[in-house]
Design brief:
Layout: H1 9-16, E1 28-29, E2 44-45, E3 69-70, E4 77-85, E5 95-103, E6 112-117, H2 127-130, H3 138-143, E7 144-150, H4 181-201, H5 211-225, E8 230-235, H6 237-248, E9 253-259, H7 268-292, H8 304-317, H9 331-342, H10 348-359, H11 364-373, H12 385-395, H13 403-408, H14 410-416, E10 451-456, H15 464-473, E11 477-482, H16 494-505, E12 516-518
Helix pairs in contact: 5-6, 8-9, 9-11, 10-11
Length: 519
């Protein structure tokens, strides 16, 4: 988001924060595709200017058209490639080479294939198949071929979105509390520079990078696997992708789980406000717990709230050093680190230590959280998740607020999130991107059958009210509410895992009652 940038935080936490049993805590067109010499099918046509979802004609399965290669020695994990049109209406424009991974089910127990997506947009999903045994319970591992792919423009799929290799100059150096017109103009100039680099370097694919086409790619994958219908499990933004797919291709949906679902009806400002409220609420919970717990490193004699406010003011006025060769920790870096830690309360101890260290003049802990937020690698490079996120997000929406319109919304964000609003306002996120020709379709899921929608009570990124709106937007959305302070609910407890796993095994007999709860 940035407005707060959804990073690989959600995916990384899902992979790393495991509980028992290997469960995590945390258009008329389709699928002309080529795989290892297979022929391209007729993609049909669609009106790129409409958001009326309609439905699309699904591609006829043609048997398993992948040429799989073994990824591991036991042959359980395989990888392959699938060519899909850059433009489904004009396949002559070239192709994306999708990187696809498969974790094989137990042949004696296999039900079918399960497409998975970790969130984003902008994050590759192949790792969610490659490392499936660290993420999903045995009911899923044994009974489904788990299919993860790097969506168009992301990960190991080519061509990949590429804007810049130096994030610090766009983010770490920003003064997010401008005092005059010159400082405000610097923020706008930085946003324009980033958008211009992204638009120019990715001009050939920019128009075709959005969620609608990724949903069409999902149907291409289904057809290439030889499946008439297929199941889906998406986290965070993966809920929006899955809901788009279910809307466009309802007849191919066997089952669909949307965990940590966002509000598909919210506009640019509204979605930003929803997330601001969510993160501010999570921060308030963290600070209250620190105040109440003398063992918290940021206890501050029972007044963590006041100490936090004083620290943020101090960092805004005088940044503190971090690591050699890296930027000092200013308010922007600190707030980004806080955003990172709010994705799961499992990071709160790390945040408390980082805040305490910053009080003592050492910003290294906050910088590490900032680096995790922006997906910085140990060698100083970045994957393309940030630039892919922003580009896909902006090409999914028709909204292009002017600088003046964004500035006018600042008081709303300050009221919604007094502590974190400097990190959620005035980013001019999509202002300087070209207009989209393919805005994401309106979500209905009509004809797809019951779709399981899960949300947590303390989700900062997709607050529960947002998840409710996703369920309400679907023809047959079944909301499941999980009590937890984290983004996404699968694996939080036995209840949340069992509900999802039982539904995937039999989505008709085991579809949950709308409004079911996992305390």
């Amino acid at each position: 988001m940035r407005r707060t940038l959804i990073t690989l935080a959600a995916a990384a936490l899902l992979v790393s924060a495991c509980t028992d049993d290997n469960k995590v805590t945390s258009t008329e067109s389709n699928s002309g595709s080529t795989v290892a010499g297979s022929e391209t099918t007729d993609p049909g046509t669609t009106d790129p200017g409409t958001t009326d979802p309609g439905t699309t004609d699904a591609t006829t399965p043609n048997g398993d058209a992948f040429e799989w290669e073994e990824f591991d020695s036991d042959g359980v994990v395989q990888t392959g490639h699938l060519e899909v049109p850059i433009d489904y209406d004009d396949p002559a424009q070239g192709t994306f080479d999708l990187y696809v991974a498969r974790h094989l089910a137990d042949p004696a127990k296999r039900i079918g294939s399960l497409l998975v997506n970790p969130g984003g947009p902008g994050f590759g999903g192949s790792d969610f198949a490659i490392y499936a045994d660290q993420i999903y319970g045995q009911a899923i591992i044994q009974q489904f071929d788990i299919i993860g792919w790097d969506p168009r423009g992301t990960g190991l799929t080519t061509p990949a979105i590429d804007c810049t290799d130096d994030y610090d100059r766009f983010y770490a150096s920003l003064d997010v509390t401008p005092d005059d017109d010159a400082e405000r103009q610097q923020i706008a100039d930085t946003a324009e520079e980033f958008a211009t680099e992204c638009s120019t370097k990715n001009a050939d694919i920019l128009e075709f990078i959005g969620t609608n086409n990724s949903a069409r790619d999902m149907d291409s994958i289904r057809a290439a696997l030889g499946e008439e219908t297929i199941s889906y499990f998406g986290f965070s933004y993966g809920s929006e992708l899955g809901a788009t797919w279910a809307t466009l291709f309802p007849d191919t949906v066997r089952a669909a789980v949307l965990d940590g679902a966002a509000d598909p009806t919210a506009g640019y400002i509204e979605s930003g406000l929803q997330q601001s409220v969510g993160f501010e609420s999570s921060l308030a919970t963290f600070l209250q717990q620190c105040s109440d717990d003398p063992s918290c490193e940021f206890h501050n004699d029972g007044n963590a709230e006041q100490a936090f406010d004083q620290l943020m003011t101090a960092l805004d006025e005088q940044p503190v050093p971090s690591s050699e060769g890296r930027p000092d920790v200013n308010l922007q870096v600190a707030i980004s680190g806080v955003f990172q830690a709010m994705y799961s309360d499992q990071l709160w101890q790390q945040l408390a230590q980082a805040l305490k260290d910053a009080q003592g003049g050492n910003g290294a802990g906050l910088l590490q959280l900032y680096d995790d937020y922006y997906a910085r690698n140990e060698d100083g490079t970045y994957d393309n998740s940030l630039e892919a996120f922003q580009t896909i997000f902006c090409m999914d929406t028709t909204e292009r607020l002017t600088v003046a319109e964004e500035d006018a919304a600042v008081p709303q964000f300050q009221a919604a999130a007094p502590r974190l609003s400097p990190g959620t306002t005035g980013s001019y996120f999509c202002t300087f991107y070209p207009e989209t020709q393919d805005p994401r379709v309106d979500i209905t899921g009509a004809g797809a059958g019951p779709i399981l929608v899960m949300g947590t009570t303390g989700d900062p990124s997709t607050p529960l009210d947002s998840t409710r709106r996703m369920a309400d937007s679907l023809e047959d959305g079944r909301l499941v509410i999980v009590t937890a302070n984290q983004h996404t609910g699968y694996g939080v407890n036995v209840c949340s895992s069992d509900i999802i796993e039982q539904y995937l095994v039999d989505p008709v007999a085991n579809a949950p009652t709308d409004g079911a709860e996992c305390p």
